[in-house]
Amino acid sequence: MRGVLTIARRELAALFYSPIAYAVIGLFALGAALVFVAGFVPGQEATVRTVFDATVWLLVFLVPAVGMRLLSEEFARGTVERLMTLPVSESQVVAGKWLACVFFLAVMLAALLVPVAVLEFVAEPDYGPVFTGLLGLLLVGAVYAAVAVFASATTQNQVVAFMVAVFINCGLTFVLFFLPRSDVVGPEAQAALHYANLNRQYADFAKGLIDVRHFVYFASGTLFFLYAAVKLLESRRWR
Amino acid sequence: MIEAQQLTKRYGPTLAVDTVSFTVAPGSVVGFLGPNGAGKSTTIRMLTGYLPPTSGRATIGGFDVLTQAFEARRQLGYLPESTPLYPEMRAEEYLHFVGKLQGMPRGGRRRRIDEVVEQCGLSLVRRRTIGRLSKGNRQRVGIASTLLHDPPVLILDEPTSGLDPNQMSHVRDLIRGLAGRRTVLLSSHLLPEVQRVCDRAVIIAAGRVVADGTLEELRQRATQTAPASPVLIEVKGTVEAVKAALRNVPYAASMDAAPAGEAGWVDAWLVPEGAADVRADAAAVLSSAGLLVREMRREAATLEEFFIRVTDVARNADTNGVAQEKEMLLGEPAGSSAGGTA
Asked: What is the ipTM of this complex?
């Protein structure tokens, strides 16, 4: 655990050292504010739901941008060789990197508290769905962070890592949205694909529902990609 | 302390490292010498457990680097080639990071960092960002990070490459200062560096060990295996007289003489048979013929020349299939790996 935290701390410091971190947080805060303001229509209910729903889609691209450098930069700089000859395991490195990425996302998602505060000022928001929604977003982010760590373990090129991560994230969302609605797949497969859709798993959190099945989905998704990342790192295939 | 047993690494059809075996005794500084692309870094990566070998085994301090990886890594300070560091970190932060991963408690870590910073001459730059340090100082940060947990074994891959002569000299002194207390394996493609820093050298070429011994042993081997070097003599007299006299020197394979630039003086060459030393006989023969000798010298085979010879032959044997020459030099039968004779 100590090794994991050491890796995570270094990674966070490196993230906040680079301008990408601030650009991502800034862009996110701006986007969230715009969506929130656009959703302010006289006569209709004021809600942060629209902002949260937009955020789920934004994460498809934002998390890869944050996580693309996690391992690929180590490969490009050659620091991976020093790191993997210290008494630290591949799983500790992967877990530390992932943890740093999730922590960063938590900081970023905190920007969503601004529209909530505005609502508090003008109305009486229902805090239940707000907090389940935030929790759901963080769980979605955790899966995407695992995808990003995995993607960055495939290459020493950060751009390629970004593309791979976005590709996988799109597969989990867009593809699983449209595929069950087409005639290509049978009804049983449709149900399965529906279940596998990441955004659908999030939908209940936005409504204020917490269901163990969704936790199982997000946890297994995260573990699957983290495991794949560990295996990739162990393989030393890039040499 | 460091042991390589039949280490072999194959990348597809390419044999990068071929059954490399050697040991580094406790407390010694051994140079791992070879031209660029000889397989030094690949061997070192297998020794440190970073790359798994295709076959063979490596141990550090008696621990297998793959099956007892953490024990082996705690014994080891490893500086990879070209000193990879995190440019955004401060020198001190980096040392803390490495120390934490080595499992050092905070108090001991602080004290130890002060020590290695002092030892490596980093006191003035310890709070600077690594990316802004000079190459020489970056190298010192890398070396400092390997010394941090006081490991009995150090493996340094080309620690002076890319440095200017002044920085090189400092880094070499630093490494030399570690001798005795630690076991050091240092790779280099520079013979003078190994001569200055190491007690022993393992020479590798085309993925194979071509020589292994103390520098004195290697020097002797250089003399013994060197092609016969001619003795050059400056004599007063005529070409005919000198030639006539030198014909009487025993163990001389061939000789020749020609007028020197200066009138009345003759330059003569005498090629001995094998490694025979013909100088004393030549002097005796010439003086009994009444000819005055003012200079006689033999170019002793140097380690430099030996290094070039063994590494070149191994490389040619591999690429052109000059199996016979390889056999001659390595003292082993021409393998089936050589693709025919040139």
From this structure: 0.90
